[in-house]
Fold this sequence. Notes:
Elements: H1 11-15, H2 30-44, E1 54-61, E2 76-83, E3 96-100, E4 112-116, H3 134-137, H4 139-149, H5 156-163, H6 172-180, H7 187-209, H8 218-230, H9 244-260, H10 270-283, H11 300-319, H12 330-346, H13 348-356, H14 362-370, H15 382-392, H16 396-408, H17 412-415, H18 420-428, H19 437-454
Antiparallel strand pairs: 1-2, 3-4
GO molecular function, one term: GTPase activator activity
InterPro entries: Rab-GAP-TBC_dom (IPR000195), Rab-GAP_TBC_sf (IPR035969)
Protein name: Rab-GAP TBC domain-containing protein
Amino acid sequence: MRSGGRDEPTGKEMSGGGGGSGGHGGSPSPNLEWRFNQTLRNVQGLLKGRSFPGKVLLTRKSEPLNAHASPEHSQEFARRFSENDHEDEYASSSFEAEVQGSGRTTSNTNLQTNILMPNNANAAPDAQGSVSGARATDSARVAKFTKELSRPAVILEKLRELSWSGVPPYMRPNIWRLLLGYAPPNSDRRDGVLARKRLEYVDCVSQYYDIPDSERSDDEINMLRQIAVDCPRTVPDVTFFQHAQIQKSLERILYTWAIRHPASGYVQGINDLVTPFLIVSLSEHLNGSMENWSISDLSPQKISNIEADCYWCLSKLLDGMQDHYTFAQPGIQRLVFRLRELVRRIDEPVSKHMEEQGLEFLQFAFRWFNCLLIREIPFHLVTRLWDTYLAEGDSLPEFLVYISASLLLTWSDQLQKLDFQEMVMFLQHLPTEDWTHHELEMVLSRAFMWHTMFSSSPSHLAS
Length: 463
Protein backbone atom coordinates (compact mmCIF):
# COMPACT_ATOMS: atom_id res chain seq x y z
CA MET A 1 0.00 0.00 0.00
CA ARG A 2 1.14 3.49 -0.69
CA SER A 3 1.63 5.45 2.50
CA GLY A 4 -0.51 8.42 3.36
CA GLY A 5 -4.02 9.37 2.35
CA ARG A 6 -5.79 7.44 5.11
CA ASP A 7 -6.97 10.40 7.19
CA GLU A 8 -10.14 12.39 6.75
CA PRO A 9 -9.59 15.52 4.66
CA THR A 10 -8.98 18.75 6.50
CA GLY A 11 -11.38 21.63 6.36
CA LYS A 12 -9.06 23.32 3.89
CA GLU A 13 -9.21 20.34 1.56
CA MET A 14 -12.96 20.04 1.79
CA SER A 15 -13.47 23.72 1.10
CA GLY A 16 -11.34 23.54 -2.02
CA GLY A 17 -9.07 26.34 -0.83
CA GLY A 18 -5.52 26.61 -2.09
CA GLY A 19 -2.41 26.04 -0.01
CA GLY A 20 -0.50 28.76 1.75
CA SER A 21 -1.59 31.59 3.97
CA GLY A 22 -2.61 33.72 1.06
CA GLY A 23 -5.61 31.50 0.37
CA HIS A 24 -5.67 32.22 -3.37
CA GLY A 25 -7.22 28.85 -4.25
CA GLY A 26 -8.63 29.01 -7.75
CA SER A 27 -11.42 26.90 -9.19
CA PRO A 28 -10.45 23.98 -11.40
CA SER A 29 -10.74 24.39 -15.12
CA PRO A 30 -14.00 23.15 -16.71
CA ASN A 31 -12.14 20.40 -18.56
CA LEU A 32 -10.40 19.22 -15.40
CA GLU A 33 -13.63 19.27 -13.41
CA TRP A 34 -15.41 17.33 -16.15
CA ARG A 35 -12.68 14.67 -16.09
CA PHE A 36 -12.89 14.40 -12.32
CA ASN A 37 -16.68 14.15 -12.39
CA GLN A 38 -16.32 11.39 -14.97
CA THR A 39 -13.98 9.57 -12.59
CA LEU A 40 -16.58 9.88 -9.85
CA ARG A 41 -19.24 8.42 -12.13
CA ASN A 42 -16.92 5.54 -12.98
CA VAL A 43 -16.31 4.79 -9.31
CA GLN A 44 -20.00 5.05 -8.52
CA GLY A 45 -20.83 2.68 -11.35
CA LEU A 46 -21.20 -0.87 -10.14
CA LEU A 47 -18.99 -3.43 -11.80
CA LYS A 48 -21.39 -6.22 -12.75
CA GLY A 49 -23.73 -5.18 -9.99
CA ARG A 50 -21.12 -5.39 -7.23
CA SER A 51 -20.59 -2.56 -4.79
CA PHE A 52 -18.27 -1.68 -1.97
CA PRO A 53 -20.70 -0.13 0.51
CA GLY A 54 -20.16 2.68 2.91
CA LYS A 55 -18.21 5.85 2.34
CA VAL A 56 -16.00 6.47 -0.66
CA LEU A 57 -13.71 9.46 -0.29
CA LEU A 58 -12.02 10.88 -3.34
CA THR A 59 -9.49 13.69 -3.12
CA ARG A 60 -7.87 15.21 -6.16
CA LYS A 61 -5.04 17.71 -5.85
CA SER A 62 -3.39 19.57 -8.67
CA GLU A 63 0.39 19.74 -8.66
CA PRO A 64 2.47 22.89 -9.25
CA LEU A 65 4.10 23.08 -12.66
CA ASN A 66 7.52 22.94 -11.04
CA ALA A 67 9.08 22.47 -7.65
CA HIS A 68 9.56 26.22 -7.16
CA ALA A 69 5.98 27.25 -7.86
CA SER A 70 4.42 29.42 -5.19
CA PRO A 71 1.86 27.72 -2.93
CA GLU A 72 -0.52 30.55 -3.70
CA HIS A 73 -0.79 29.29 -7.26
CA SER A 74 -1.57 25.71 -6.34
CA GLN A 75 -5.11 24.39 -6.59
CA GLU A 76 -6.83 21.64 -4.72
CA PHE A 77 -10.35 20.52 -4.41
CA ALA A 78 -12.11 17.52 -3.00
CA ARG A 79 -15.32 15.74 -3.63
CA ARG A 80 -17.00 13.41 -1.23
CA PHE A 81 -20.00 11.22 -1.50
CA SER A 82 -21.61 8.55 0.59
CA GLU A 83 -23.13 5.46 -0.92
CA ASN A 84 -25.47 3.38 1.20
CA ASP A 85 -25.80 -0.30 0.61
CA HIS A 86 -29.20 -1.59 1.64
CA GLU A 87 -28.06 -5.15 2.28
CA ASP A 88 -27.95 -6.00 5.97
CA GLU A 89 -24.59 -7.69 5.99
CA TYR A 90 -22.84 -4.56 4.83
CA ALA A 91 -24.51 -2.14 7.21
CA SER A 92 -21.43 -1.65 9.36
CA SER A 93 -18.81 -1.98 6.62
CA SER A 94 -16.88 0.96 5.22
CA PHE A 95 -14.80 1.42 2.15
CA GLU A 96 -12.58 4.46 1.89
CA ALA A 97 -10.38 5.38 -1.01
CA GLU A 98 -8.25 8.35 -1.82
CA VAL A 99 -7.31 8.94 -5.41
CA GLN A 100 -4.70 11.59 -6.00
CA GLY A 101 -4.01 12.70 -9.52
CA SER A 102 -2.11 15.30 -11.43
CA GLY A 103 -3.95 18.40 -12.54
CA ARG A 104 -2.44 18.03 -16.00
CA THR A 105 -4.75 16.97 -18.81
CA THR A 106 -2.44 14.35 -20.30
CA SER A 107 -3.47 10.75 -20.83
CA ASN A 108 -0.73 9.57 -18.49
CA THR A 109 -2.27 10.98 -15.31
CA ASN A 110 -0.49 9.46 -12.33
CA LEU A 111 -2.98 7.96 -9.90
CA GLN A 112 -2.19 6.94 -6.36
CA THR A 113 -4.91 5.04 -4.54
CA ASN A 114 -5.11 4.18 -0.89
CA ILE A 115 -8.01 2.01 0.20
CA LEU A 116 -9.03 1.07 3.71
CA MET A 117 -11.10 -2.04 4.16
CA PRO A 118 -12.89 -3.00 7.37
CA ASN A 119 -11.16 -5.55 9.55
CA ASN A 120 -13.95 -7.44 11.26
CA ALA A 121 -12.55 -8.80 14.49
CA ASN A 122 -15.70 -10.85 15.06
CA ALA A 123 -15.42 -12.88 11.87
CA ALA A 124 -16.24 -16.52 12.47
CA PRO A 125 -13.50 -19.09 11.90
CA ASP A 126 -13.82 -21.13 8.75
CA ALA A 127 -14.37 -24.88 8.58
CA GLN A 128 -10.63 -25.57 8.62
CA GLY A 129 -9.88 -23.47 11.68
CA SER A 130 -8.25 -20.50 9.95
CA VAL A 131 -9.70 -17.02 9.98
CA SER A 132 -11.45 -16.19 6.75
CA GLY A 133 -12.42 -12.76 5.44
CA ALA A 134 -15.18 -11.05 7.39
CA ARG A 135 -17.45 -10.87 4.38
CA ALA A 136 -17.19 -14.57 3.58
CA THR A 137 -18.35 -15.64 7.04
CA ASP A 138 -20.86 -12.88 7.82
CA SER A 139 -24.08 -14.55 8.95
CA ALA A 140 -26.28 -12.47 6.64
CA ARG A 141 -24.07 -13.32 3.66
CA VAL A 142 -24.16 -17.01 4.57
CA ALA A 143 -27.95 -16.77 4.59
CA LYS A 144 -27.87 -15.22 1.11
CA PHE A 145 -25.62 -18.00 -0.18
CA THR A 146 -27.95 -20.59 1.34
CA LYS A 147 -30.94 -18.94 -0.30
CA GLU A 148 -29.28 -18.92 -3.73
CA LEU A 149 -28.14 -22.53 -3.47
CA SER A 150 -31.60 -23.69 -2.39
CA ARG A 151 -33.23 -22.48 -5.60
CA PRO A 152 -34.41 -25.15 -8.07
CA ALA A 153 -32.14 -23.43 -10.59
CA VAL A 154 -29.27 -21.31 -9.25
CA ILE A 155 -29.04 -17.82 -10.73
CA LEU A 156 -25.35 -17.76 -11.58
CA GLU A 157 -25.06 -13.99 -11.90
CA LYS A 158 -26.29 -13.51 -8.34
CA LEU A 159 -24.00 -16.27 -7.14
CA ARG A 160 -21.04 -14.52 -8.80
CA GLU A 161 -21.91 -11.24 -7.12
CA LEU A 162 -21.94 -12.91 -3.71
CA SER A 163 -18.84 -15.01 -4.33
CA TRP A 164 -16.64 -12.12 -5.47
CA SER A 165 -16.08 -11.00 -1.86
CA GLY A 166 -15.43 -14.50 -0.54
CA VAL A 167 -17.24 -17.81 -0.16
CA PRO A 168 -17.87 -19.58 3.17
CA PRO A 169 -15.30 -22.41 3.18
CA TYR A 170 -17.77 -25.25 3.70
CA MET A 171 -19.78 -24.04 0.68
CA ARG A 172 -16.79 -23.75 -1.67
CA PRO A 173 -16.94 -27.22 -3.26
CA ASN A 174 -20.52 -26.79 -4.49
CA ILE A 175 -20.16 -23.11 -5.38
CA TRP A 176 -16.90 -23.51 -7.30
CA ARG A 177 -18.39 -26.35 -9.35
CA LEU A 178 -21.35 -24.11 -10.20
CA LEU A 179 -19.27 -21.03 -11.03
CA LEU A 180 -17.05 -23.04 -13.37
CA GLY A 181 -19.99 -24.60 -15.18
CA TYR A 182 -18.96 -28.11 -14.16
CA ALA A 183 -22.16 -28.62 -12.16
CA PRO A 184 -25.41 -27.47 -13.84
CA PRO A 185 -27.51 -24.72 -12.20
CA ASN A 186 -30.59 -26.98 -12.26
CA SER A 187 -30.59 -28.93 -8.99
CA ASP A 188 -32.59 -31.83 -10.46
CA ARG A 189 -29.83 -32.56 -12.99
CA ARG A 190 -26.82 -31.87 -10.78
CA ASP A 191 -26.20 -35.28 -9.19
CA GLY A 192 -26.70 -37.09 -12.47
CA VAL A 193 -24.31 -34.84 -14.38
CA LEU A 194 -21.60 -35.13 -11.73
CA ALA A 195 -21.92 -38.93 -11.63
CA ARG A 196 -21.61 -39.13 -15.41
CA LYS A 197 -18.59 -36.81 -15.57
CA ARG A 198 -16.83 -38.72 -12.80
CA LEU A 199 -17.30 -41.98 -14.70
CA GLU A 200 -15.99 -40.30 -17.84
CA TYR A 201 -12.83 -39.31 -15.98
CA VAL A 202 -12.32 -42.91 -14.80
CA ASP A 203 -12.59 -44.08 -18.41
CA CYS A 204 -10.03 -41.48 -19.50
CA VAL A 205 -7.56 -42.57 -16.83
CA SER A 206 -7.95 -46.20 -17.93
CA GLN A 207 -7.49 -45.26 -21.56
CA TYR A 208 -4.55 -42.84 -21.27
CA TYR A 209 -2.79 -43.29 -17.92
CA ASP A 210 -3.16 -46.93 -16.86
CA ILE A 211 -1.28 -48.29 -19.86
CA PRO A 212 2.31 -49.53 -20.30
CA ASP A 213 4.95 -47.19 -21.70
CA SER A 214 5.17 -49.41 -24.77
CA GLU A 215 1.80 -47.99 -25.85
CA ARG A 216 2.89 -44.37 -25.43
CA SER A 217 4.74 -42.21 -27.92
CA ASP A 218 8.15 -40.79 -27.06
CA ASP A 219 6.60 -37.36 -26.49
CA GLU A 220 4.03 -38.83 -24.12
CA ILE A 221 6.72 -40.67 -22.16
CA ASN A 222 8.76 -37.48 -21.83
CA MET A 223 5.69 -35.54 -20.76
CA LEU A 224 4.81 -38.11 -18.10
CA ARG A 225 8.37 -37.98 -16.78
CA GLN A 226 8.25 -34.18 -16.57
CA ILE A 227 4.97 -34.33 -14.66
CA ALA A 228 6.44 -36.92 -12.29
CA VAL A 229 9.36 -34.54 -11.64
CA ASP A 230 7.12 -31.50 -11.08
CA CYS A 231 4.59 -33.09 -8.72
CA PRO A 232 6.99 -33.25 -5.72
CA ARG A 233 7.87 -29.59 -6.38
CA THR A 234 4.24 -28.50 -6.16
CA VAL A 235 3.63 -26.19 -3.17
CA PRO A 236 6.78 -27.50 -1.44
CA ASP A 237 6.15 -25.51 1.74
CA VAL A 238 2.86 -27.36 2.40
CA THR A 239 3.65 -30.80 3.79
CA PHE A 240 0.28 -32.24 2.79
CA PHE A 241 1.28 -32.12 -0.88
CA GLN A 242 4.35 -34.22 -0.14
CA HIS A 243 2.25 -37.32 0.53
CA ALA A 244 2.90 -39.95 -2.13
CA GLN A 245 -0.79 -40.59 -2.72
CA ILE A 246 -1.51 -36.89 -3.26
CA GLN A 247 1.35 -36.65 -5.76
CA LYS A 248 0.02 -39.71 -7.59
CA SER A 249 -3.40 -38.09 -7.85
CA LEU A 250 -1.79 -34.92 -9.21
CA GLU A 251 0.12 -36.98 -11.75
CA ARG A 252 -3.02 -38.73 -13.01
CA ILE A 253 -4.97 -35.48 -13.28
CA LEU A 254 -2.21 -33.58 -15.08
CA TYR A 255 -1.29 -36.34 -17.51
CA THR A 256 -4.90 -37.07 -18.43
CA TRP A 257 -5.58 -33.37 -18.97
CA ALA A 258 -2.45 -32.94 -21.11
CA ILE A 259 -3.27 -35.91 -23.34
CA ARG A 260 -6.79 -34.63 -23.92
CA HIS A 261 -5.53 -31.10 -24.70
CA PRO A 262 -2.82 -31.67 -27.31
CA ALA A 263 -2.77 -28.02 -28.44
CA SER A 264 -0.93 -27.13 -25.25
CA GLY A 265 -0.02 -30.42 -23.62
CA TYR A 266 1.55 -30.16 -20.19
CA VAL A 267 3.21 -26.84 -19.34
CA GLN A 268 5.08 -26.28 -16.10
CA GLY A 269 2.90 -24.18 -13.84
CA ILE A 270 -0.33 -26.02 -14.60
CA ASN A 271 0.55 -28.33 -11.70
CA ASP A 272 0.08 -25.35 -9.36
CA LEU A 273 -3.37 -24.64 -10.78
CA VAL A 274 -4.70 -28.02 -9.63
CA THR A 275 -3.87 -27.44 -5.96
CA PRO A 276 -6.75 -25.08 -5.02
CA PHE A 277 -9.26 -27.48 -6.55
CA LEU A 278 -7.67 -30.42 -4.76
CA ILE A 279 -7.78 -28.73 -1.35
CA VAL A 280 -11.36 -27.54 -1.77
CA SER A 281 -12.54 -30.94 -3.00
CA LEU A 282 -10.81 -32.72 -0.12
CA SER A 283 -12.36 -30.32 2.40
CA GLU A 284 -15.73 -31.79 1.47
CA HIS A 285 -14.65 -35.13 2.97
CA LEU A 286 -11.95 -34.31 5.56
CA ASN A 287 -12.47 -32.23 8.70
CA GLY A 288 -10.16 -29.99 10.68
CA SER A 289 -6.94 -28.33 9.61
CA MET A 290 -5.23 -29.40 6.39
CA GLU A 291 -2.08 -30.22 8.39
CA ASN A 292 -4.04 -32.98 10.14
CA TRP A 293 -5.64 -34.50 7.05
CA SER A 294 -4.91 -38.10 6.16
CA ILE A 295 -5.66 -39.29 2.65
CA SER A 296 -5.84 -42.85 3.99
CA ASP A 297 -9.13 -41.92 5.65
CA LEU A 298 -10.78 -41.78 2.22
CA SER A 299 -12.11 -44.71 0.24
CA PRO A 300 -10.81 -45.33 -3.31
CA GLN A 301 -14.21 -44.24 -4.65
CA LYS A 302 -14.02 -40.88 -2.88
CA ILE A 303 -10.46 -40.34 -4.08
CA SER A 304 -11.58 -41.10 -7.63
CA ASN A 305 -14.46 -38.61 -7.34
CA ILE A 306 -12.14 -35.94 -5.95
CA GLU A 307 -9.68 -36.45 -8.80
CA ALA A 308 -12.50 -36.26 -11.32
CA ASP A 309 -13.81 -33.01 -9.84
CA CYS A 310 -10.31 -31.50 -9.93
CA TYR A 311 -9.80 -32.62 -13.52
CA TRP A 312 -13.06 -31.12 -14.78
CA CYS A 313 -12.65 -27.90 -12.77
CA LEU A 314 -9.14 -27.46 -14.19
CA SER A 315 -10.48 -28.08 -17.69
CA LYS A 316 -13.24 -25.49 -17.26
CA LEU A 317 -10.80 -22.93 -15.86
CA LEU A 318 -8.28 -23.32 -18.69
CA ASP A 319 -10.92 -23.39 -21.42
CA GLY A 320 -11.06 -19.60 -21.07
CA MET A 321 -7.29 -19.12 -21.31
CA GLN A 322 -6.03 -21.81 -23.67
CA ASP A 323 -3.57 -19.49 -25.41
CA HIS A 324 -1.81 -18.97 -22.07
CA TYR A 325 -0.31 -22.43 -22.44
CA THR A 326 -0.01 -23.03 -26.19
CA PHE A 327 3.29 -22.60 -28.05
CA ALA A 328 5.12 -19.39 -26.99
CA GLN A 329 2.24 -18.72 -24.55
CA PRO A 330 0.93 -15.63 -26.40
CA GLY A 331 -1.89 -15.09 -23.91
CA ILE A 332 0.54 -14.56 -21.05
CA GLN A 333 2.75 -12.28 -23.14
CA ARG A 334 -0.32 -10.18 -23.90
CA LEU A 335 -1.17 -9.87 -20.19
CA VAL A 336 2.42 -8.87 -19.35
CA PHE A 337 2.23 -6.08 -21.94
CA ARG A 338 -1.07 -4.86 -20.49
CA LEU A 339 0.33 -4.94 -16.97
CA ARG A 340 3.26 -2.76 -18.04
CA GLU A 341 0.92 -0.22 -19.63
CA LEU A 342 -1.43 -0.20 -16.64
CA VAL A 343 1.41 0.38 -14.17
CA ARG A 344 2.63 3.24 -16.35
CA ARG A 345 -0.83 4.83 -16.16
CA ILE A 346 -1.28 4.32 -12.42
CA ASP A 347 2.20 4.95 -11.01
CA GLU A 348 4.51 6.59 -13.52
CA PRO A 349 7.46 7.04 -11.09
CA VAL A 350 7.65 3.27 -10.49
CA SER A 351 7.26 2.54 -14.18
CA LYS A 352 10.00 5.03 -15.07
CA HIS A 353 12.36 3.68 -12.40
CA MET A 354 11.92 0.10 -13.62
CA GLU A 355 12.57 1.22 -17.17
CA GLU A 356 15.68 3.17 -16.19
CA GLN A 357 17.04 0.12 -14.36
CA GLY A 358 16.39 -2.07 -17.41
CA LEU A 359 13.89 -4.35 -15.65
CA GLU A 360 11.49 -6.05 -18.03
CA PHE A 361 8.06 -7.07 -16.74
CA LEU A 362 8.55 -10.49 -18.33
CA GLN A 363 11.31 -11.16 -15.80
CA PHE A 364 8.82 -11.41 -12.94
CA ALA A 365 5.25 -11.12 -14.24
CA PHE A 366 5.45 -14.15 -16.54
CA ARG A 367 5.45 -16.46 -13.52
CA TRP A 368 2.69 -14.43 -11.88
CA PHE A 369 0.35 -15.01 -14.81
CA ASN A 370 1.55 -18.54 -15.54
CA CYS A 371 0.69 -19.71 -12.01
CA LEU A 372 -2.14 -17.21 -11.37
CA LEU A 373 -0.22 -15.74 -8.41
CA ILE A 374 -0.36 -18.98 -6.41
CA ARG A 375 3.38 -18.81 -5.71
CA GLU A 376 3.29 -15.16 -4.68
CA ILE A 377 1.02 -15.38 -1.61
CA PRO A 378 0.73 -17.79 1.34
CA PHE A 379 -1.15 -20.91 0.36
CA HIS A 380 -3.82 -20.44 3.03
CA LEU A 381 -4.96 -17.30 1.15
CA VAL A 382 -5.15 -18.93 -2.27
CA THR A 383 -8.71 -20.23 -1.97
CA ARG A 384 -9.96 -16.77 -0.98
CA LEU A 385 -8.21 -15.27 -4.00
CA TRP A 386 -9.73 -17.92 -6.22
CA ASP A 387 -13.23 -17.08 -4.99
CA THR A 388 -12.77 -13.79 -6.84
CA TYR A 389 -11.11 -15.48 -9.81
CA LEU A 390 -14.03 -17.84 -10.39
CA ALA A 391 -16.59 -15.10 -9.76
CA GLU A 392 -14.99 -13.11 -12.59
CA GLY A 393 -15.67 -15.95 -15.02
CA ASP A 394 -14.60 -15.18 -18.58
CA SER A 395 -13.31 -11.76 -17.46
CA LEU A 396 -10.62 -13.33 -15.26
CA PRO A 397 -7.63 -12.70 -17.58
CA GLU A 398 -8.53 -9.01 -17.82
CA PHE A 399 -9.06 -8.60 -14.08
CA LEU A 400 -5.88 -10.56 -13.32
CA VAL A 401 -3.92 -7.66 -14.83
CA TYR A 402 -5.42 -5.29 -12.26
CA ILE A 403 -4.78 -7.69 -9.37
CA SER A 404 -1.15 -8.01 -10.47
CA ALA A 405 -0.77 -4.24 -10.72
CA SER A 406 -2.25 -3.86 -7.25
CA LEU A 407 0.11 -6.50 -5.87
CA LEU A 408 3.14 -4.89 -7.50
CA LEU A 409 2.32 -1.35 -6.35
CA THR A 410 1.85 -2.48 -2.76
CA TRP A 411 5.61 -1.88 -2.57
CA SER A 412 5.77 1.20 -4.79
CA ASP A 413 7.97 3.23 -2.44
CA GLN A 414 10.37 0.36 -1.78
CA LEU A 415 10.78 -0.49 -5.46
CA GLN A 416 11.88 3.04 -6.31
CA LYS A 417 14.85 2.64 -3.95
CA LEU A 418 16.12 -0.64 -5.45
CA ASP A 419 18.52 -1.23 -8.30
CA PHE A 420 18.03 -3.83 -11.03
CA GLN A 421 19.38 -6.85 -9.17
CA GLU A 422 17.58 -5.95 -5.95
CA MET A 423 14.27 -5.50 -7.78
CA VAL A 424 14.59 -8.87 -9.51
CA MET A 425 15.24 -10.62 -6.21
CA PHE A 426 12.46 -8.70 -4.47
CA LEU A 427 9.80 -9.39 -7.11
CA GLN A 428 10.69 -13.06 -7.36
CA HIS A 429 10.44 -13.46 -3.57
CA LEU A 430 7.71 -11.08 -2.45
CA PRO A 431 7.55 -10.50 1.33
CA THR A 432 4.04 -11.90 1.71
CA GLU A 433 4.75 -14.82 4.04
CA ASP A 434 3.06 -13.05 6.98
CA TRP A 435 0.06 -11.82 5.02
CA THR A 436 -3.46 -12.35 6.31
CA HIS A 437 -6.86 -11.96 4.65
CA HIS A 438 -6.69 -8.24 5.41
CA GLU A 439 -3.71 -7.63 3.11
CA LEU A 440 -5.27 -9.73 0.36
CA GLU A 441 -8.53 -7.79 0.60
CA MET A 442 -6.54 -4.56 0.22
CA VAL A 443 -4.99 -5.86 -3.00
CA LEU A 444 -8.38 -6.92 -4.37
CA SER A 445 -9.95 -3.61 -3.37
CA ARG A 446 -7.35 -1.58 -5.24
CA ALA A 447 -7.76 -3.83 -8.26
CA PHE A 448 -11.53 -3.33 -8.16
CA MET A 449 -11.14 0.45 -7.90
CA TRP A 450 -8.70 0.69 -10.80
CA HIS A 451 -10.75 -1.60 -12.99
CA THR A 452 -13.83 0.52 -12.33
CA MET A 453 -11.97 3.74 -13.06
CA PHE A 454 -10.36 2.54 -16.29
CA SER A 455 -13.14 0.33 -17.66
CA SER A 456 -14.60 3.27 -19.61
CA SER A 457 -11.27 3.87 -21.37
CA PRO A 458 -10.23 0.43 -22.65
CA SER A 459 -7.69 1.88 -25.08
CA HIS A 460 -5.20 2.19 -22.22
CA LEU A 461 -4.77 -1.59 -22.38
CA ALA A 462 -4.84 -1.94 -26.16
CA SER A 463 -2.45 -4.63 -27.31
